[in-house]
Design a protein that fits this description.
Layout: E1 36-39, E2 43-49, H1 52-57, E3 65-67, H2 70-82, E4 86-91, H3 94-106, E5 110-113, E6 115-117, H4 125-131, E7 137-138, E8 143-145, E9 150-156, E10 162-167, H5 181-185, E11 190-193, H6 205-219, E12 223-226, H7 230-235, H8 237-247, E13 250-254, H9 255-262, H10 267-274, E14 280-284, E15 290-297, E16 333-340, H11 356-377, H12 394-409
Bound molecules: adenosine-5'-triphosphate (ATP) and guanosine.
């Protein structure tokens, strides 16, 4: 496991330190490893540049993810082919991307649950998915199916906004029997998306996801939900509020999804509202950057060294240097918030925003998982007197998340091809402090 966020820290792995008496590395103890699990609809993104007229022609709503029939798929695919509009075909899926990016950032294991075609041929979509996924993502638990995985037409307009058309194939046939309960119970987090509930009669994905969630809840494994697309939430906001309240610890969304679930358009106010239901919130807000919110016990709160920020909650970032905790672990819970503007003011030119939110979540998961890793291996560290959810402060995690998003904005694929640099040439060392 690499160190998360700020990439130099003398305390992270004292287990690797040389013994001062012998000047040798203590090799007697093996490091205990940990992993995270994600469930997804296994999809390949087919990316093309289009305009509004194209979206209108196929009755697609800009910025949304929508399921399309086989008939529309054939017509759409033919049009893209005939006009030579396809730029890339690359592994996708919101949780698939998150697991891949987590594994690249952490240089460590994640497990992806979903379906995979039984018969794979060189060059087909299943082949492409596997070959575009980090070898650190464990695909051994995928359930074989007799047919194709899904295709996600990722249609990018001039502003970089993406619209998704999903041709489902057999992506929703993951069966509850394929959910290994002990795999979930020993994970550092279970990551799911609201897309898993968008199924047709006969599909078993929702049931499988619910089984995994209940298992994680019972084992005290944090459940992380990403809201996916505002459409889904708008249809049944009350269902989602209840679901989140009952089953979810960490909620991640963009400002539109935040509006759909809370009725608040201000991302800070929405994040605050979500704290009524969950332990921690990540709300990305495009060019406005990123907000995070959580809880800390009074005795562990830490004051920021940055200027206090105005907003729906006055001085809302006052305790952003605190490490967030589960609400149940706080004797005197205090709500903490942070905001960060896009890294370096955002890139000069955005290739496309597809997956920027997934990358932010991957960075936060890295920090959470690093905390578990550190606790398992250096349990007596003063770091763990506080039963925190993450290794770093809310403020530090938001910087890291933002940095990871930036990397996705300046490339075409939603998946990182390499980890982040150890040192940022462009930044003062102080940027990463705390
Ligand atoms: N136009 C922009 N300018 C600068 N930074 C941006 C812009 N759009 C996105 N970002 C950065 O990317 C992060 C995530 O963006 P966004 O809110 O678009 O995620 P998202 O809608 O969840 O993405 P996706 O669902 O495709 O993963 C933001 O917090 C910000 O750091
Ligand atoms: N699992 C899943 N991923 C989706 C869906 N629609 C879009 N995405 C993915 O979202 C990613 C960007 O967040 C893209 O790479 C898409 O593959 C969907 O319905 N289900």
């Amino acid at each position: 496991m690499k160190f998360p966020g700020r990439r130099q820290h003398k305390h992270y792995f004292p287990v690797d330190n040389k013994n001062p008496l012998t000047n040798q590395i203590n090799r007697s103890s093996r490091l205990l490893r940990n992993y995270i699990v994600g469930i997804d609809q296994v999809l390949v993104d087919i990316e093309a540049k289009i305009d509004q007229a194209f979206l209108d022609e196929f009755d697609l709503q800009r910025g949304m993810s929508q399921v399309i029939s086989d008939e529309v798929t054939e017509k759409l695919y033919q049009r893209l082919k005939d006009e030579n509009l396809i730029d890339y075909e690359f592994a996708g899926g919101t949780i698939g991307n998150t697991m891949h990016n987590y594994s690249v950032l952490a240089d460590d294991r994640s497990v992806l649950l979903g379906v995979m075609s039984k018969n794979i041929h060189v060059g087909d979509y299943a082949y492409r998915f596997i070959s575009n996924t980090s070898s650190r993502v464990d695909l051994n638990y995928l359930q074989p199916v007799d047919g194709p995985i899904g295709r996600c037409f990722t249609l990018i307009d001039d502003s970089g906004e993406r619209t998704f058309g999903i041709n489902a194939g057999l992506i929703n046939r993951l069966h509850p029997d394929s959910i290994d309960e002990s795999l979930i119970a020993q994970a550092s987090a279970l990551v799911i998306s609201s897309y898993l509930m968008r199924t047709e009669p006969g599909d078993t994905m929702t049931e499988a996801a619910i089984k995994a969630v209940k298992c994680a809840n019972a084992a005290g494994v944090p459940v992380v939900l990403t809201l996916g697309t505002k459409h889904l939430i708008e249809k049944e906001p009350e269902f989602w509020r209840q679901f989140v309240k009952e089953h979810v610890n960490i909620l991640t969304m963009n400002e539109e999804e935040a509006l759909a679930i809370t009725d608040y358009s201000d991302p800070l106010q929405a994040a605050d509202k979500c704290l009524d239901w969950v332990d921690m919130v990540i709300c990305t807000a495009g060019a406005e950057g990123l907000y995070m919110a959580g809880y800390v016990d009074e005795q562990y709160k830490r004051e920021t060294e940055y200027a206090l920020l105005p907003g729906f909650i006055a001085d809302f970032n006052q305790y952003e240097y605190s490490r967030p905790m589960l609400l149940k672990d706080c004797e005197q819970p205090l709500r903490i918030y942070t905001h960060i503007a896009p890294y370096m003011g955002g890139p000069d030119s955005i290739k496309n925003t597809n997956g920027a939110g997934d990358a932010a979540l991957a960075a936060v998961l890295h920090d959470l998982s690093a905390n578990v890793y550190h606790k398992r291996n250096v349990g007596k560290s003063s770091k763990h007197v506080q039963p925190a959810l993450s290794y770093s402060s809310l403020s530090q995690m938001s910087k890291y998340a933002n940095r990871a998003s930036y990397e996705v904005l300046v490339q075409h694929s939603p998946r990182l091809s390499r980890g982040l640099p150890e040192r940022e040439d462009s930044l003062e060392q102080a940027y990463w402090a705390i």
